[in-house]
Amino acid sequence: MRMWTQNYSKNYGKRRAVARRFLAAGLTLTILMLTGCGNADMDPLTSPLEISYDRQEGEKVTVQKGDLTPTFEAKIELSGYSEESYSLFSEKMEEMETLYDAKLDQLLVSEGESVTAGQTLLTFSSEVLDKRSREWSLTKSSKALKREHLINLQNIDSSQDYSAEIKDLGDDIYVANQYISDVNGLYSNLNIIARKDGVVSFVNESVRSGFIVLGAPIIKTYTDDGYYVLDKASLESESDILNSNSDMEFKVGDKFKAVYALNEYEVEVIDNPNEEASAGDASSSNKVYFKLVSDVPLKDHVLTLTKEKAELKNVCYVDKRAILVQDEEAYVIKEMEDGNFQTVKVKVGDVVGAYVVIKEGLDEGDAVLIPG
Predict the structure, then answer these.
(1) What single string gives the DSSP state of each residue in 71-90?
(2) What share of residues in the chain are helix, strand, coil (percent, to 5)?
(3) Angular region, 328: left φ>0, alpha ψ -120 to 50, beta rest
(4) Residue among 297, 289, 176, 315 nearest 232 (CA)
């Protein structure tokens, strides 16, 4: 809702600029204060407001009256969130195919699975490397058998000295181990290995089908602190009078719905995990902390927090596009009894969907203009 308010103010500023061009230069309107759905005791006249308009421009809408249920809405983010993305690019893949005849082999992880640094996530097969590994493994086995045989002969007959041969075979075994290690290292360079601990948040569908989209993320993992955070400062804005989120209170144990795309969760307010318990009052801090109620792994980095507020009974409301915001005050362009339009100052309340509650300045049935 806050994001809408900011965008709305910007767009409205553009509409005001367009509207000014339709009036004679220097036109200034005196604001007429009218009694409304709220307190009828309003200040009489205010200073002239330099908002100009053309009665031929815009859409006319009517002030309505009834019951509305406003909804609190805000963004919460995973604390300590960081993401690792694993991809293969054409140059690397061409090298793997040319030098090692590498082919996609096996996916070893799935979404939601915890992984540790150094763990293999995706493997490739290579006939070239497999052949080298077999050859050096056979060489090592053969040398080891000969060395063991000579050691046994020397133990049986101490007059026989095979020390030189045993040493040479030991050196050969060492070289074979080095080559085997090199082959294993080359395999590790082919495979995708986890760079740090985390949870798998994404696996490209192409991998499940047996091929790789070069340059695109293949696997993503993330780490976090295990809870979500809402910065209360983001709910407050002195220049945004259409923001009705700043009055929301948060108590430890309060539950909210949180959504992202098609995923829906339930989250609960918790004590600040970085400090001692705050006696159940989560509103005393500049930040509010949440945890998932279920055991579903934390997956989505940013969630939209929502909760219905108390129902507003028998209130006046109007299309929110009709509200002009200037110098931290709200105005509408109201149609008067003579058919002319007058810029009127109003006091606004909650924004509810496409409407904004009018506390003072308008009555049910009044017509106002949505500038074109």
Answers:
(1) EEEEEEEETT-EEEEE---H
(2) 25, 35, 40
(3) left
(4) 289
- The two three-digit tokens of residue 364, written as one number: 């049910």
Rounded to whole angstroms, the Cα distance separating 59 from 55 reads 9
From CA 270, how far away is CA 268, in angstroms rounded?
A: 6
How far is CA 232 from each of CA 11, 237, 248, 256, 260, rounded to the nearest angstrom? 26, 11, 10, 16, 20
C-alpha 164/C-alpha 185 separation (Å) is 32
Beta bridge partners of 245: none
How many CB atoms within 10 Å of residue 315? 21
Nearest to 299 by CA among 208, 199, 162, 209: 199
Lowest mean pLDDT among 46-55, 235-244, 280-289, 349-358: 46-55
- Count Cβ neighbours within 10 Å for each residue of 283-314 and write b for 16 or more, e otherwise: eeeeebbbebeeeeebbbeebbbeeebeebee
Cα–Cα distance for residue pair 181/172, rounded to 1 Å: 14
* pLDDT of amino acid 87: 94
**The residue type at 13:** G
What one-character DSSP code corresponds to residue 297?
A: P
**SS3 of residue 208 by DSSP:** helix
pTM over 0.70: no
- Find out whether 208 and 107 touch, Cβ atoms under 8 Å: yes
Residue 320 DSSP symbol: G
* ∠ CA 71-76-82, rounded to 5°: 160
71 beta partners: 308
CB 203 within 8 A of CB 115: no
Strand partners, 200: 221
For the chain, what is the largest distance between any 2 Cα atoms, rounded to a whole number of angstroms?
130
Q: At what angle do helices 127-156 and 90-100 cross, to 10 degrees?
A: 50
Residue at 327: amino acid letter: D
* Secondary structure class of 50 (helix, strand, coil): coil
pLDDT band at 240 (very low <50, low <70, confident <90, very high): low
Place of tokens 């058919």: 339
The arithmetic mean of pLDDT across residues 282-305, rounded, is 79
Tell me if 212 sits within 8 A of 65, measured CB to CB.
no
Residue entry with tokens 């989250």: 267
Crossing angle of helices 163-190/127-156, nearest 10°? Answer: 160
